[in-house]
Amino acid sequence: LQVIIKDNQDSYPFLKVHFPYLFVKSREFTGVGEYSNFGYSKEVDESDINTQLTSSKRLLVDNLKYEVCYVLAITNGKIDFLEIVTNGNESLDEKIINFKLV
């Protein structure tokens, strides 16, 4: 999340302020991906910004052959969820032990 927020700070500077108040509300595994749904521990301002953000970094998971795609959804100016999806027919285990952003 920090990498996505940093890579998009020029267009969406308010996300950095939101980060300390985020927590993972729930996770949903789809087999080939995962949704991490976020909540806030403190109220933050909403806006009419609805978009999806990513970064220029590639996400590599040790036990997967191909890189993984990821996108952060912003709904009403708030961080809503992070979607992670594998490329190819690989499944995403419920535990990602080692990964790196390159």
Protein architecture, described:
The chain is mainly beta. Helices cover 11% and strands 41% of the residues. The strands form two sheets. Strands 1-2-6-5-3 form a five-stranded antiparallel sheet, with no helix packed on it. A two-stranded antiparallel ribbon has the order 4-7. It is globular and about 40 Å long. The model has no long low-confidence stretch (mean pLDDT 91).
Secondary structure elements and their pairing?
Layout: H1 2-7, H2 14-18, E1 22-29, E2 33-40, E3 51-53, E4 59-61, E5 68-75, E6 78-86, E7 99-101
Antiparallel strand pairs: 1-2, 2-6, 3-5, 4-7, 5-6
Low-confidence stretches: none
The level of helicity is 10-25%
How much strand content do the residues show? Answer: 35-45%
- Number of H/I helices: 2
Pick out its properties.
two-stranded antiparallel ribbon, 2 helices, 102 residues, 5-stranded antiparallel β-sheet, mainly beta, globular
